[in-house]
Fold each of these.
Amino acid sequence: MNLRPVDEQRAVCLNNIHPLERLELPLLDAQGCVLAEDVSALWPLPSFDNSSMDGYAVVAADVASASVDNPVTLTVIDDVPAGYRATERVTMGTAIRIMTGAPLPDGADAIVPVESTDAGIDNVTIWQGSVAGRFIRRAGEDVHTGEVVLSAGQLMGASQIAILAAAGHGSAPVHPRPRVVVISTGNELVEPGTPLKHGLIADSNSMMLVAAARASGAEAFRAGPVPDDEQRLMDTLDDQLVRADLLVTSGGVSMGAYDTVKAVLSRLGTVEFVKVAMQPGMPQGYGTLGEQGIPIVTLPGNPVSSYVSFEVFVRPMIRRMMGYADTERPRVDAVCTEAMTSPEGKTQFARVWLDYGESGWTVTPVGAQGSHILGGLARANALAVIAPHITHVSPGDVLPVMDLRNRIGAS
Ligand code: AMP
Ligand code: MG
């Protein structure tokens, strides 16, 4: 049996995948996206000289020698909270009460913090000296107008959203989240949460794959379950193609008599079905559909195979479409705590519990490793990667491990 190495199939899947074209998204919709171009400030930050303390705007020379033994009393002529401008000018002998973030009044060249005063309203007594410039935030000291505040390739997190908002932007030019449509296939599938008749199963794969795609950063939708009927499948693919940047199917790609996905897509000639040297997840398919050449990945139906294949082939595609430079799960080397076996000639992705303790990173297999063992998958937080030439893993052996621990929630 001629099996294709995992890395070769990954290269096939990623070969024609590029970051999606730049789209201007409202700032909060851009969270988790990668910037498609540099963004510059529309105005300086701060955009005006302002006070960094609650206190009094003064002429520094007035209070240069103020001390506890030699306090200085000034007439308070105005009061400026943040968001307002003083209407008066500070001159020798006067002060304006000012709050943090309020514009520096004309004539003033220092702020005396309220803690160094008697906090007076009409007059203020100051018992600490000052110098020009003290407690003033100068316009442009953070960012100049036109300065690049974020560069293409940067990930939009909370603080990146903040700088764009502060510097005049309501939206960000990003690579948008790919729209991923998940189509599950199988006559045996029923909607999760509804009662089962004997012989039927809940369509857990489409739920899992949509969740996994979302956790990878995509906008994902469920289509299906679609019965093993060629016309129904073709109609569904046609319908979904227009709203997808990536199609993912589950089931129907092995050697069975009702493997509809393989039957329908093989005829088109744009999708290649192969056996990949991996366990779980041997039957795989990749190709493109429609005039736009929308990529499609056909994942095997067994739930664990489906999940592992998603991790190995689909997640990197999603990440690349999103413009991430690093499309991969973090990898760590971990000491295996239990013996494991692995098939000769195939890369095994073993479901394990990854832990960090006194002896560093360790992994422990979770339950049986069959491709239908969804309970074990649900208890795993990592995949140990056992190379094709390794057939036995002993306690103490070190394995490379894909850390899946951030798979729930956002990217
Ligand atoms: P298939 O590749 O279609 O022959 O499916 C292989 C195995 O995976 C069978 O036991 C199916 O019942 C199961 N399976 C297929 N699709 C799903 C799904 N959407 N959810 C859960 N199990 C599935
Ligand atoms: Mg099937």
Amino acid sequence: MKVVVLTGAGISAESGLPTFRDADGLWEGHDPMVVATPESFAADPDLVHRFYDQRRAALARVEPNAAHRALAQLEERLGDRLLLVTQNVDDLHERAGSRRVVHMHGRLRSAWCTACDARHAWTDPLGDRPPCPGCGEAALRPDVVWFGEVPREMERIERALWECDLFVAIGTSGVVYPAAAFVHYASGRGTRTLELNLDASEASSDFAEHRRGPATRLVPAWVEELLAGDLREQE
Ligand code: OAD
């Protein structure tokens, strides 16, 4: 039994990280969707750095929750039969113990040098323009995917979607592509599809099954069910 799980901001909400489209959706009066673009970075790098520096600093104040931990437990059991794809730039999946995580929108705790193309683990601010540890140029940017840029590891994700028996989306609004289309790849091949979300999303009607509620309740219950029942039958 091969499983692909896609997570979005909703899985980290109960850890204390705000989602993109809930609440008033504004950051310092700006639409985060407008801040997260290469054009914004070119026009106002201080603003974009401040946005990501605040979000990177917030990671030090939060912990993984029961939903992250349940997915790590699922990986322990399924090993390479599970691929966890996240749109989140936080590191809560890794801190909960997941190892096979694809960060299709990049990672906050990484800096990317636009001069030498190297990537470096990074927990400090970038707004004060620190030099790249590799080449010394003050050319580091957040290692995240902005609107208009290409998401990471798409070939690996598409291959896993092609091969899986079950596709599960957790805590994502289903409005940002290409992630929003993964359910179509999967359901087009007759793969079972399940959405676990607080409420109905834009993509809900594309899923065969839905469960509504907070991720910290839904995800551990679903993982327990899968480990107890489905797996035994299909192994
Ligand atoms: P959104 O903020 O668009 O959606 C979060 C979803 O999580 C919503 O459908 C909520 O109902 C749901 N939700 C909120 N709290 C929840 C909880 N406790 N348990 C379960 N579900 C909950 O976030 P994403 O779908 O992740 O991209 O956004 C996708 C992309 O848009 C992001 O990766 C980011 C953003 O622009 C880039 O920055 C490129």
